[in-house]
Each structure stands twice: as structure tokens, then as C-alpha cells.
Amino acid sequence: MTASRGKSSSGLCGFLHESSLDIGSVTGVGARATHANMASELQVAAPDYFAFFSLPQKLNLDIALLEREFYKLSRKLHPDLYAREGKEKQAWSMEQTSLLNDAYRTLKDPIRRTEYLLHLQGVELEEQSKTATEKARASGNIKKQVVPPDLLEEVFELNMQLEELRMNEKTGENDSTLVKELEAQRVSLENKHEALLDELKTYWNDWDHSLTSGSEEDRNKVRDKMVDLLNRRNYIRNLVRDVNEVLESST
To answer: How large is the average pLDDT for residues 64-73?
Structure first.
């Protein structure tokens, strides 16, 4: 899905509002005709999730407003309203409802919203998911993974401790001191992970401001900061996951 800047006001949400469709008052043949016309005019989906709700591509969103718009659109796009229409219009309704749900879930979540906006900017984050790790192991490939420079020493020490605990598990040894150290490391990493979300929100303000008062260079600088932060956050999330897995297997 590609970005379309400057066209959010013509999104699906805007069209439905302009159509003045009142679901509670439309019945019978008139309702079917109205829905048919709507489906006919909206064969092309909104260019992006922001435009779907007639929103600018900003990161500070009014979540309460987003939720209200979501429920309005849900009622107006519900497949039951197209039950007497042809299969093509029914399929359109289901497709738009699915897109609406995806758009709402993405924009409501602060991390997914940021990642999606970066996607619209042509940026793909490093693949740090557990699925990517398992896929790399199965294929014998090395998963792309960059250790944040300021975490190099800590990660090296952590990996040594994790390997030691794995070896203890195989030999049947029990090192309670090592377990406590790893539990403390987990808490420290979780705190860093949470703090990065607060830092990310400061970049939201910079991004939103750059849309109206900044240059393309300003936007690119903010974009790069968000990319670096999210890659770092994802890396820390995976460290926490690795620690949890080893601790759980040792109990």
C-alpha cells in the first residue's frame, strides 16, 4: 500500500460523512440503492490507513476520535447491509470492513502506528521477530541483526550468562546466583524497553511539527531517529524474550 499525501480529506471516512447516510433511517429499496451506489463509487480503497479515516499522516492522534470514526464506519460498511446485493458488492463490503479493522488496530497502537508511517515513508525496520529468528535457524541463514553500540558490552555479558545457564541445565547443575543475576538483567532490560516508548513520543511531536513547519531534511532526521529507536527497542524486546525462555527452561 503506497502513501498518498495531501488527500486524506477524500478518504473513505470523508466520503461516507459527505454522503449523509443515516443507517437508522434508511430502509428497504432505498437503502439497497444507497449502499449499491456507495459500493459502486468506492471500488478503489483509501490510499493508506490515515486517509481511510480522513486523517493527516501525523503520529499524535486523538484516539477517542479515531474510535468514534471506526464505529461509524463499521456500521456503514457492515456486510449485513449488503446482504441483498450482488456478490461483487458483498465482497466489496467484506473487503472494506477487513481493511477498516486493520487500519483501526494499526493506528490505535502507538508502535504499530509509528512503524506503519515509516512504511509509508519507504522504510522497513530490521526483522527482529521470533518468527524471523526461527526461520533463519531452519534455513541455516544468519538473521540480520545489529546490536545497538551502547549495548555491546551488556549483550556480550548477557549472552555469556545465558549460555552458562543452558550448560547448567544440561549437566543438572543449579546456580541460584546466576539465576538471580539474569532476573535482575531482565528487569533492567524491561525498564529500558518501556523508557524507549516515552522517548519515541517526543519524536512524534518533532515529526508532526515538521509536516507544517519543517523541511524535508528535518523530516528525514526525525524519521531516522525513530527508525534507530524502534530497531533498538525491538532488539531489547528480543533480549527479554531470550532471557525468559532460558529462565523458564531452567525451572
So the answer is: 93
